[in-house]
Every structure is written in structure tokens, then in C-alpha cells.
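Researcher: Let's run the pair from yesterday's discussion. Sequence first, then C-alpha cells, for each.
Model: Starting with the first of the pair.
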Amino acid sequence: MLDIRSRIAAAAATGFLVTRPLGAQVPQQPPVVIPPVEIVATRIPEAPHEVPASIEVISGADLRARGARSLSDALSLAAGVAIAPGGDAGPASAVPEFWGLREFDAFLLVVDGVPWGGALNPAISTLSLRDVERIEVLRGPAPVTYGATSFVGVIHVVHSTPADRAAYAEIHGGSYGTGGGGVDLGLPAVGAWTSRLSADFDRFGFRDDNTSITRGHGLLRTDRAFATGRLWLTSDLNILRQDPASPHPRVGTELTSAVPLDANHNPAGAYINDNKIAVAAGFDRNIFSNAAWGTTASFAFTTNDQFRGFLTAVSNTPDNASGYKETIDIHDFYADTHIIWPAISQLRLMAGADALLAGGEARGATFTYTAPLSGVQRASVTEPTNLDLDAGNDRRFLGAYSSAEWRPLNRFSLSGGLRLNSTAESRGEGAEVTHTRLSGSVGTILGLFERDADHVRLFANYKNTFKPAAFDFSLAENEGVLDPETSQSYEGGLKVRALEGRLDFEASAFHMDFSNLVTATIVNNLPALINSGKTRFKGVDLATDYRLPFATLARATYSFHDGKYVDFVQDLDGVPTQLGGHRIQMSARHLASAGLTYAPENGLTAYTTLNYTGDRFLDEENSALAKPFTTFDAGIGFRGDRYELRIDGRNLTNRRDAVAESEFGDAQYYRMPARTIQTGVAVKY
């Protein structure tokens, strides 16, 4: 019995997994075999249409065909997902939206099987999309195998295996001083060990000259196969330097014209600096009765230094801005061990246990300063040296889980999972708070029609989820632990494959009742978090792919999302206000996308992508309605046997709409980055 990673590699070798690098053979006619395997939902390689959940897989070949360098580029055609670039964590970060909930911590980010950010928040800023084999996107709560981590979605980024011998080098440049380069290559084997290295250096510029990203990154993967399994090791180093942008204030129902577009109100020399090192190791092996035993352990250490500020008054008056300097040290540890038994009497079982441990300590100081509204000249502020404020958090999430899948008929399966969560958390000098509770899921899928590669299948699932409240190391919060977030969700839908496997269609509807959702507030001019009572999310997601001849893929998606407060009283301008019945701010009811990609083995390549975002309220009171907008990306290139030339345009419509709300200032919003053009050349050697 092959281990899981070997089965994935075998699937790729037989064409079940589309992982074609630059210059590899690309079939002119779409395959009629199973699409890319996924493991995020079950830890077992299965096609998305075999799983009773909304899941899709984006191949590395597709990412390269579209020149995707960021999470927003990569998921621009994902159903029911909207990625706002930037945000409070800096221009290298992003704020994803699943199921109408746009919160930085509401989803789970997994990189090569390890939660990226651990028991705290997803570490999007340090995510690398170099040398990616595939990205798996699961809509809905995280499976029981990943514990108390997510309510609305999982993004799993899987890099190429050490056994991949392909080697590439590329350089690129573009608008606003953007440029960089990188290499991906298989290293010479050392005995039975095979290794692969990715390294890159990039600078990204923006229309605001005072906003930029500079990043150096290296990823080393190595493994060793033996008779009954394999050992593997990875190490990831990320050095990130960001010059932050400023959110744009709203006055009344509109983004104010008193502040110019791209004005930067940070103090001169503002920065967000991250250094992260992460190491992981594990093994997969066959044990008694041909069962598969897998174990993973990882450790990451991150330092984050910030010096920044934001407006507190939209006027050219003294001390109209507030800032802070903060240093944060975070360590997180993850371990998982599980056993998957082979199917016996159509019943397949899995059992395991995991641990997520994290701790962090922040020290900082605050200050006020005067920032010209024009942002033309930034204020000179001396960095505080007496860091007299602190914020600390220690978390311990332990769990034991089991799952089962029963398939009495080829057309029918019933699956379920159960997890026992034991969590402990303390903040600052406050007392430790513990919780012990069950969570679980049940799902079923039924084939109404099956013929060769084509099928029509119905699926449904129910999930009960629990998650301790988020913590963001704000200097305004230290003592006391917020109530844990809980949810119950129901989802059902249809999965169709037709025209000998060339056409895929998926439709799903969901309903989620949410309690104690964590939202942002302002305390003493600093961001803080509070629980928000009860909320409700429901909607419909539709997606279709059509694999046309001549290496052409067409895709379209549409989503209707309706997120509302059910019972939540918040202090607004000193007045307790019941928000029940109001739409969740920044959540668009209508999302749509369409794309066409032409990516043959050699010759001309091209792609286009359209993304539509419907109207959404900018505020909880639902008084400020933002208009819909559409963005357009396109690229063209040329492929030779050993090289590729390309040019890519992002946000060619140059829409600058508000896409993410800031937690740093009341009624302030990050806008879509301006239009950019990038060119690049890649060489295979």
C-alpha cells in the first residue's frame, strides 16, 4: 500500500493530477480521467467530486498560465471566494472572504499539510506561491482533522515534491519599481535522500511611492523513500520588509474627498518587518494490516516589528493621528499523528490526535502626531524607546479525532467525523481559560447518473464547529479571554461532469448560524476585538469549467451571499445600537467571475479574467452603500521548448474601490491597488 504522498505522485504520473511545468507536454484534448486529487478534506487522495463538500483544486500549471504571484491572483476564479489584497497586516497580506464573511482569521491557511499561522492567525504575508503543485480550496468549516481553526474555508497550498527534477529560473519587472527573480531546482541526491530548493527575491511597488514590499524567501524540501514508507523534512525562511499603506477615511456615507487617493498618513520611515523560520518533519509508512500511519511535527518562530500610524480625525488640526511602535515574538508548534485503515466491508476508518501550541509576547508604545491630510509630506516622528505597554497570549489546542466513510454502493457513500477539543488560553497576566467540547460533521453523496467519466451527484453535509476567539496582539487588549466562537452549518448541492469529462458544473447552497463572531472595535485609539452576538450566513455558489480543444479552459462562477446580524448590540458613537437584521459590512451579496486561458505546450499563450463585486455596506448601520465594481486582468506570452516570455496586466480597469475595512481607525478602508503591468522571462534548464 503506497503512502499518501506517493499516491499523489503516482496520480500525477498517470495524468490524474495536472501538474505540468513550463515546457512539459500539454495534451491538446482535455483528459477524461479523474481531476486533481485533494487531501485537505479527508487526508486521503480523492477527486473533489467524490467528497460531500464544496472543494476545488487549482493546478500549478493553471497558476503559471495566469502568472499568479499573489493569493488574490491565484484565487481570482475560485467560486464563492473573494480576496481583498493588502489590509492591516500590510500590502503583502490579504483579507479573504468565504460564504460572505470577510475576516482575516475566519479561515484556515495550510501549507504542505501544516497550519500556516498555527493556533493564532493565518500568516498570509509570509505565504510563498513559488513552485506550487496545486492549491486546494474548501468552502465551509475545516474538517475534524484540523481542529478548532476555521468556520468558512480552508486554503491548502501544496508545493512540488522533492522528487520533482524540473529546474527553472525567472526574472520579472514592472510598474512602480516592481522587480525580482527566483530559481526552483532539484538538488543532487545524497544517498537515498532527494531534495528540492526554491529561492526568490522580490520587490513590489505601488502607486503610492511610500508603500512597498521587499521579500527574500527560501524553501528546502527533502525526503527519503524506504520499503514501507518515507521520511521528509522541510525548512522555510522568509525575510519580509513592508512599507505600509494608509486606509482611506469615510465621512458620512462616502469615502472622503478631503483625503487624496493614495495619501499615506504613516509617520516617515514607517515599517512592518517580519522574519520567519519554519521547520517541519514527518513520516508516512505502512503498518499492521496494510494501514497507513502518518505523523507530522512543525515549529515556527516569527518576529514582527512595527512602526506606523493612522488618522484619528479627518482635519488638518494638531495631533490628528495616532501611532504605535510594537515588537512581537511568536512561536508555534504543530503535531499530528493518524492512522488510516484500508476499507473493510466498504467501511474505511481513520483516527488521530493533534496539538497546536502557540505563544507570543508584544511590547510597545503609543504616540500622537500631526499628519497633513494631503499625505504629500509625512510627519517626522521619533520612534519611542520606552516600550511600556504589553500584550501576551498563550494557547494550547489539543484534540483527538476519528472519521469513517461507508460506501455500501458505488453510487452512495456516508461519511462522518467526530472531534474532542480541549483548549486552554491565557492573555497577559489573566487567568487561564479552558474549554472541552465536541465538534463533528456528517456528509453523504449519491450518484444519480454514472457513465464512464460523466456523472450527476447530489451531496449534503452538516458541521458543528468550535473555535477560541482570535487574538491580534493589539496594545489595547491584554487581560481577559473572549468567548469562543461556535457555528452550525448545513450545505447541499450538485456535482456534474459531462461531455466525456470536458464539462464540470457544481452548485451548492449553505446556511450557517454563528455565535460570538469576533469583530473589531476601537479602544483608546487602538484596535481591539469584541464578540458580536449572533449572526447568520446563507447563500448559493455556482461554478462551471469547460475544457475546450487546443489547451483552452473556460471558467465562470457566480455567488449570492447573505450575511446578517441576528442579535448584536454595539456601542456606536456612545449609543448602544441593536444591529439585528443589518447586513454584515463589506460583504457583497453578488460575486461573479469569468476567465479564459489558452496555454499550449509551445507558441502563443493568453488569458483573461473578469471579477465582479456587487454592492456592499461599508458600515454596521448599513447607511453607507458602496457601488458594484468590475476588475479585469489579462496576459499574453510565448512559450518555447526551454523558455517563456510573458506580460501580465492586473486591474486593467483601474478600479480603486474599498475592499477591506481597517481595524486601526474608525471608518477607514483599504482600496484596490492601482493598475499594474509586469513582464517576465522564465527559462527551463
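Model: Moving on to the second of the pair.
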Amino acid sequence: MRKLIAIAFTACLALPGLADAQQPGKFAYTELKPAQPTEAPAGKIEVLEFFWYGCPHCYNLEPTIEKWTKKLPADVQFRRVPAILSEEWERDALIFYTLDAMNLLDKLHRPLFDAIHRDRLRTSSQQALAEWLGKQGVNANRFFDTMKSMGVDARVRRAAQLTLAYRVNGTPAMAVQGRYTVSAEQGRSHQGMLDTVDYLVGMVRKQK
């Protein structure tokens, strides 16, 4: 895994030479070449959010994302992907996918964000994380056992691969249908990012 992270980080440093930025009208985004395969069912337009639990910008974007996802059209499938650019980011990706494997992600995703940024929870401390999990009614031993599972490891590896394939060099970042990405800088604001994603979703829909 460390080798994969190193490759991803090196590739991201070379990002400017790997994709063509386009600015039609007021929307700025990047077109991926080549386009990436998507995992959404046939007929669905896939939208990914690359994030890191330790990222304050991702945390501040979260309330806007939550409102936006509630209004998504039926043909759009939204999915969060924990970006992996270092061992620290890998650790938080492990937490994300462990919560998902235990069917706790919907319940604890936002509270974990709050605990990290509001209450200064250090996810690097297993003891601190175990205490926080206990307060949420989660069996910490079961959590850490699940974290070591092959299923969680495979999903973390996949997240590292996606970080590399989508040339993510910072968070938050959004991707649409494996073809386009939008960075925080390109979006200029939280709403600007999502407005650009909406524009790209409409463009993909017209191309179908």
C-alpha cells in the first residue's frame, strides 16, 4: 500500500501536464484523458467526491453537499471516495470503509467530521478513536477487527487507485462520469463547485 500511495503522490505532482483545463462560459473544470471507467449502474451518471476527514475545506463543504445530494435527479449516483495522498490519509480511509462495512457510515460520517474539527479528535490515536467509538455505541474491538479485514483493505486500495487515476492532488475535488473533475480552486466556492458539477451532469446527459 505504501508503494501505491507514493506512486499516487508522485503522479499528482505532475497533474498540470496530464489533463486539459476547459472554461466554457463561467464554468471551469478539467477533462480527463483518458476517461475513467465508472462503477454506477447502466443509465446512471456517476458523481464522486474525493475528500479527507482531516481537510477543513471538506468539512466546511459537507453541509452544502448534504443539502445538494437530497435534490439530485434520479439518474445521478453520488459516492464519496476518501482520497489517499499519504499514510495519514490512508488511515482515515480505513476508518471510512470500516464504518461502511459495519453499516455505520450514514450514522457516523458527519459526527466523525464534527469530532475531528470541532472536538479535536486525533484519529491517529487508537485509544482516542476507541473512546469516541464507545460514546457512539460502537464496539471498538469489533471495529478494529473489521478494519483489518480483506474487504476493507481492498476498498482502501481501490480508493488509492482512484486517487491516482483521477489525478487528485488536493481536496475537496469532484468527478463526473469518469470524464471531468472540478477542484475547489476551479469552483471558487462551495456552491460554485456544485453548480459546475450540475453543469457537467447536464452535459453528460445530453451526450448520451
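Researcher: Give me one sentence on the second I can quote.
Model: Residues 49 and 103 are 20 Å apart (CA to CA).
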